[in-house]
């Protein structure tokens, strides 16, 4: 996951930069990945950026700010989605007296099915 140069919309005292996750997608599957994820705006939704990481402030794609590096193979393109780590990055930026959040790798699990979060 990478901290970008994209400002989040401020909410009260909370402000900061968007964090994105990156997945290398084979060039011929990019449209399909956009269509599939774009149909679920209540979760990650459509990619925020496709291609050159420097456009969104990522100078070294092999050195993520959080998590492990992902190798990009020949014929793959880096595709970036907004990430659920953004709130933690904003909290680290603002440093409130108290905050309650989840632990990395331990996200909220519900009985909501993917079909229920797709829009028509």
What is the count of β-strands?
4
> Helical residue percent?
10-25%
Instruction: Report the mean per-residue pLDDT as an integer.
Output: 90
How many strands, what sense, and barrel or not for the largest sheet? 4 strands, antiparallel
In the CATH hierarchy, the third-tier topology is known as: PSTPO5379-like fold
Q: Going across the biggest sheet, name each strand in turn.
A: 1-2-4-3
Low-confidence stretches: none
Task: From the alpha carbons, calculate the radius of gyration and give it in angstroms.
Answer: 15 Å
The total count of helices amounts to: 3
Shape: globular
Number of domains: 1
Could you give the order of the helices and strands? EEHEEHH
Q: Distance between termini?
A: 30 Å
What is the CATH C-level name?
Alpha Beta
Assign the structural class, choosing from mainly alpha, mainly beta, alpha/beta, alpha+beta, or little secondary structure: alpha+beta
CATH superfamily: PSTPO5379-like domain
The CATH architecture comes to 2-Layer Sandwich
Share of β-strand residues: 15-25%
